[in-house]
Design brief:
Helix content: 25-40%
Structural class: alpha+beta
CATH superfamily of the largest domain: Regulatory factor, effector binding domain
Mean pLDDT: 83
Number of domains: 2
Radius of gyration: 20 Å
Oligomer: single chain
CATH topology of the largest domain: Multidrug-efflux Transporter 1 Regulator Bmrr, Chain A
Strand content: 15-25%
Shape: globular
Strand order of the largest sheet: 5-2-4-3-7-8-6-1-9
Length: about 325
């Protein structure tokens, strides 16, 4: 059966050349399958049909072009891989609910936000993949887990998110539904994105896990419907980078917990995962980077005080 591991090299190609149009037969030939088999396998594994996936990447490319330059709507359409102004406008309205002209007007203020543009380009291709990234699909051969852990002081930040409670085995499925919804909400409503996709685990028990997943955004962002906004208070935190498949993140938590205790601190709040790597850009699971941030209590041993930084700076360690 065709797995995500089989499709990741192809997803890398699609991510790196988002505006190029490819036929179903051409895509299927790259993994040596028939067009009908490829269509079914791609939809099952990725969560979108090949056409839907390619069209979404084209529209996200167009969204970046609309806010980052003075190109005409026709120029944006052509550069994004569309053949006409009309076809592009129809697809854009269907995806975002407003016309390209309205989108540009509402989002022009974000033209100077390199972080916002980077998040659109980096996170977009992998949004539907979180629910598919399981041990059954990926080569999770054993790796040497060594962690560099730092104590840092994080400034207050604003978090845009959806929340859910689910079983531990359903976390990937939940993230695969929540993260795309928050991302598309921010993109549609012109909300500046200040972080990669992020998850907070507010409660973890043998039965159910409570989590919040979304993006960091500017203060003053308003909630809408089931998309909530929360102020995350300033805090000291232990921070490390986990390199490897998501399923092996428990190694990072174990290393953090041990380091925190050895330095006279205690865990003090919901741990956070920040997904730094786009699996559709880097197909090898052993290279995926996830930042793990665990809030801690104040210093009780003779340990140098942590440096205070903003949460945006944390993502660049």
């Amino acid at each position: 059966m065709t797995s995500l591991d089989d499709l990741l090299p192809l997803l890398v190609q699609l991510s790196r050349s988002r505006t190029r149009r490819r036929s179903l037969s051409e895509l299927a030939a790259q993994i040596q399958k028939s067009p009908s088999h490829f269509q079914r396998a791609f939809s099952r594994v990725v969560g979108e049909s090949p056409k839907q996936y390619g069209r979404r990447l084209q529209l996200e490319c167009a969204a970046v072009l609309l806010i980052s330059g003075n190109r005409s709507i026709l120029q944006v359409a052509i550069q994004s891989g569309f053949e006409s102004h009309e076809g592009f406008t129809r697809a854009f309205i269907k995806q975002y609910g407003i016309s390209p002209i309205q989108f540009r007007k509402h989002n022009r203020r974000l033209a100077g936000s390199a972080t916002h543009v980077h998040i659109i380009r980096q996170a977009g291709p992998c949004l539907q993949l979180f629910k598919k990234l399981s041990l059954n699909d990926l080569d999770t051969r054993r790796m040497n887990m060594n962690y560099d852990i730092e104590f840092r002081s994080i400034s207050e930040t604003t978090f845009l998110y959806k929340s859910t409670r689910c079983g531990q085995s359903d976390i990937a499925q939940a993230l695969g539904e929540i993260i795309p919804a928050v991302f598309q909400h921010a993109l549609k409503h012109g909300i500046e994105m200040l972080s990669p996709p992020t998850t907070l685990y507010t409660n973890w028990s043998p039965g159910l896990v409570s989590l919040k997943s979304g993006l960091c955004v500017p203060a003053g962002t308003a909630p809408t419907g089931d998309i909530y906004v929360e102020t995350l208070p300033a805090t000291d935190a232990a921070i490390t980078i986990h390199v490897g498949p998501y399923e092996t993140l428990t190694n990072a938590y174990g290393a953090l917990e041990k380091h925190i205790a050895e330095n006279g601190r205690e865990c003090n709040g919901a741990p956070r995962e920040v997904y730094l790597t786009d699996p559709a850009e880097i197909p090898e699971p052993e290279q995926w980077q996830t930042q793990v941030i665990w809030p801690i209590t104040s210093n009780t041993l003779n340990v140098p005080p942590p440096t205070r930084i903003t949460l945006c700076e944390v993502f660049n360690v």
